[in-house]
Amino acid sequence: MHQFAAVPFVSVLLLVYAGVSHAALGGLPEQFNAEGATVVSSVSSAMPNYTIRETTLATGTHVREYISDGGVVVALAWNGPILPDLKALLGQYFDTMAAESASKPRAGRSHIRISRPGVVIHSGGHMRAFEGSAWIPAQFPAGFSAAEVR
Fold first, then answer.
1. Most CB atoms closer than 10 Å: which of 70, 101, 112, 116?
2. How many C-beta neighbours within 10 Å does residue 88 have?
3. If DSSP states are collapsed to H, E and C, what string results for 86-104?
């Protein structure tokens, strides 16, 4: 009976964090402009063909966006005590994660792993210790690999 209790929990969690900011994966970098939120961002270039932007949200959660030279977020990763706004971070891919989560009764109690040709999403954890990553393999810049997303 407990395995089915996880589906509503995950659905509620996803909806709670769904409407706070703007799009990211496959689009422009996140604006992190939630009302009253204090964020600290820094940019560091690891390679000549992409940039890593690291942001610490007011909640203490860290978000790393891997941005191609064309300005598109090709990968991202997060970790911290509170889930970031996954609808905003995953953009059009949020629905893929929500559908996959709903189809797996135990998704709220373990990690969810989605590996499709168009997108890869890993997310999991528990209160005060959430982590995840997502990327679009077809949009990786030359020399970039999924191993760099952390």
1. 101
2. 22
3. HHHHHHHHHHHHHHHHHCC
Domain edges within the chain:
2-148
- pLDDT (tens digit, 9 = 90+) per residue, 18-72? 333 344 899 878 766 554 455 677 776 657 789 888 888 889 999 999 999 888 9
Token representation of residue 30:
């996140």
Distance (Å, rounded) from C-alpha 64 to C-alpha 57? 11
**Geometric angle at alpha carbon 79, from 77 and 82, rounded to 5°:** 125
Mean of per-residue pLDDT scores for the chain: 78
76 backbone dihedrals φ, ψ, rounded to 5°: -155, 160
User: DSSP states of 15-73 as a string?
Assistant: HHTSSSS---BTSSPP----TT---EEEEEEEETTEEEEEEE-TTS-EEEEEEETTS-E
What six digits make up the tokens of 74? 């090709």
What residue type is assigned to position 85 of the chain?
Answer: D
- DSSP character at residue 4: H
**What type of residue sits at position 147?**
A
